[in-house]
Amino acid sequence: MDEPQRLGEYELVSRLGAGGMATLYVARHPGSAMPVAIKVVHGHLTSDWEAMRWFIDEALITIRIRHPNVVRVDELGEQDGVYYLVMEYVHGASLAQLLAALAKAGRRLNPWLSAWIVARVAEGLHAAHELRGDEGELLGVVHRDISPQNILLSHDGDVKLADFGIAKAKGRAERTREGEIRGKIRYLAPEQVVGGPQDRRVDVFALGVVLWEMLTQRRLYAGLDQNELLEAVKDPRAERPSRYQPGIPPGLEGIVLNTIGRAPEDRPQTADVLVHELDELLRGAPADFDGRAALTALMRDVLGSQLLEALRALPPELAAEAGLDTFEPTVPRIHRADGRPVASEERGHSFAEPSQVFQTARPDPSEAPPAVGGQPAASPGTRAPKKKSDTALWVLSTLLALAAFVAAGIFLLRD
């Protein structure tokens, strides 16, 4: 079947990727230069009444959510039996993609930045949990698929929760059958596996697992087969993140371990409570820490060349609206007064794995991002940080000084 060129008033510009239920495109409306993303249901599913009801229910939920930390859905459309959603275009990468790129470069997320990202996701999650219907009734939305793949990070520091495809809500068709588990197993709360009521606290639990993995740069349940993983999820036992990585801010470990408490009543009871706990912790961050600026610098440092290439692949007017004119892929890292980077720290870890790109213009979103290593080039007019030199070097001969300079250059290139 040929791919459509237009859907309704929208012109499809390029194909971003495909999943089990739909294909994602970047598109434009003739009355606007701002790119949008369009999610198109696979043709073979349009005759599946149950699948189509599920898709339409997703649209009815997400169109109602208006929060800066949730991917905006603007329109549900149909053309010649083809159903589609028109959504906000996020130029960037998923958290999963960023973590994989950091792993390949031998780096880790700064703990303060990890806390800031999760706090922003929790804000969007709370807005979804509090969604109300036409009569003011609470719809009881539960996302059920919180994971690094569904957390989007834009190239200019936005954090957005995506994909309510398997969300639970009042009045929504329920496709889960007895014995069937929805969502990615390693992020499920125990009650999702052993049975029992499932409310917003399962999403809070999943977000806690995400934060634990961001801090440790490893899986919470590592090296387990499917059956062992299911057993581990039933009775989660998380080690303190500081066992694997030093420098975890005081208080953050307690927040993480409480959030992934086995019993729902042991966790923060709402995502909003988690927001307040993390934001209170962030009051103790270094004075020059700015979450959005740190994320922007890290995205452009680690994924800058790929993101810039994707922008240039768009039609010029769409690329300009998406930020091409102001995009600098080599923004220097933000540093503290002691010279340590705020955005990230160089450390080894074991989190690398292929991850799916969501809503970027890369041609094959199933590929993991290429390894990004080495130091970022300095922006015009910016002097790159230099290591302190022993003052005795200055009195050595010209030949020895040159040799020291070359050796230092090799070290920086390998860092």
Number of beta-strand segments:
11
Q: Assign the structural class, choosing from mainly alpha, mainly beta, alpha/beta, alpha+beta, or little secondary structure.
A: alpha+beta
Radius of gyration from CA coordinates: 23 Å
How far apart the termini lie comes to: 49 Å
CATH architecture tag of the largest domain: Orthogonal Bundle
Note the run of SSEs as H and E: EEEEHEEEHEHEEHHHHHHHEH
What's the level 1 CATH class of the largest domain?
Mainly Alpha
Strand neighbour order, sheet with most strands: 1-2-3-4-6-5
Instruction: Enter the CATH topology name of the largest domain.
Output: Transferase(Phosphotransferase), domain 1
Which quaternary structure do these chains form?
single chain
Task: Report the CATH superfamily of the largest domain.
Answer: Transferase(Phosphotransferase) domain 1
Average pLDDT:
80
The percent range for strand residues is: 5-15%
Task: Give the helix proportion (percent range).
Answer: 25-40%
